[in-house]
Amino acid sequence: MIEWLLVPAAYLIGSISSAIITCRLMGLPDPREQGSGNPGATNVMRIGGKKAAGITLVGDTLKGFIPVYIANLLMVPTELLGLVGIAAFIGHLYPVFFSFKGGKGVATSMGVLFGLSWLLGLAFTGTWLLMYKVGKISSLSALIASILSPIYAWFIIGNQAIVAASLMMMVFLLWRHKSNIQRLLNGEEKLI
Fold first, then answer.
1. Alpha-carbon distance 20 to 34, whole Å?
2. What single string gives the DSSP state of each residue in 112-176?
3. Is 191 within a domain?
4. pLDDT at 155 over 90
């Protein structure tokens, strides 16, 4: 039963804000108070450039990947594996260390998917990259990759618990991007 401690541990790891820490260490403004106000890699790129954004992206991806990877190494049941991934993702969205005000979850969900399956992570990342190459809109790329991720999970892994975890992350990701969706519908979303 000690393996169930992986869920709160994953949430705490997810609660570490790579964007805020990176900006503090690099002497940049708090991403919650600049640009879009979102503590994520895209906003960090706007206020601090590619290097700061790259560090943020890696940090946010790893905090999704590491808990799931460890749970995989411990060979926990698939249902628990899905919960560990969701916990890390929710930690990013609602971080206990930062007044429950976190990012939108794209990189962290990508890390979770890589932890579940390299093929699943590559499918998500490949979709994001292809959509970004076509449209140059980060949020639209993330939304499309996220919407397709439960379908990818079904075909790549075929386990209902993993599909459900992917579906739950998709729903939260869509919710967190509701302002982006409105701007997309209005033709006002910014290119990167």
1. 11
2. HHHHH-HHHHHHHHHHHHHHHHHH--HHHHHHHHHHHHHHHHHHHT--HHHHHHHHHHHHHHHHH
3. no
4. yes
Number of structural domains (the chain) is 1
Amino acid making up residue 22: T
Taking each continuous run of H as one helix and of E as one strand, the counts in the chain are: 10, 0
pTM to 2 decimal places: 0.93
- Residue 122 or 187, more confident: 122
Give residue 166's domain range: 2-186
Residues in the chain: 192
pLDDT of residue 2: 78
Asked, for residue 192, whether it belongs to a domain, the answer is no
**Domain for residue 28, yes or no?**
yes
Residue 36's pLDDT band (boundaries 50, 70, 90)? Answer: confident
| Rounded Cα gap, residues 68 and 51, in angstroms | 26
Q: Hey, what are 126's tokens?
A: 């490949």
